[in-house]
Input
Amino acid sequence: GNSVTQMEGPVTLSEEAFLTINCTYTATGYPSLFWYVQYPGEGLQLLLKATKADDKGSNKGFEATYRKETTSFHLEKGSVQVSDSAVYFCALSRNNAGNMLTFGGGTRLMVKP
Amino acid sequence: GAVVSQHPSWVICKSGTSVKIECRSLDFQATTMFWYRQFPKQSLMLMATSNEGSKATYEQGVEKDKFLINHASLTLSTLTVTSAHPEDSSFYICSRTGDDGYTFGSGTRLTVV
Output
């Protein structure tokens, strides 16, 4: 079956530090890959996505590249801000829409000024 | 942008009572909606898939008689937690799929006392 594994948190960084949150997946076929962000007390918001191998999703300075050879979709940001503090979820679906999402365990990021 | 409205955001109820959570797709007719549950510091776990005009599909281990799902229209799905107990306290989130992918509600934090 489908599964997503992401690094455990919390990840604590100083402002302007470089961020990497690892995500690897197991799936049949060619899934779409997503990163969602959850700010305290809120629901999930789509951060970025990629639908095929070698695609790079990007948004708000965050990037992730769909690596089929390593079954990975690591999230990166060159310079984090305090406002980036949140929980980040890696997820996959077998289709871009219509099928359910499978989530990783979430990684809490805390950015200190 | 895509809008899914979830209500209420917070609810506290007494043990043994029932609580209804509404999820409305405001800008898109959703034949399928999803209900997730999130325990503190954990990932989202799919509870059930809500299908308009038919019975919901529950994930293994989810009690369908306890978590009643109704999807009577293309814009509204409801989750009713019946005879709630403290262990049902959790964060419940709905989502729908559409041409723009997945959109999540803002979540409902249920506390059973």
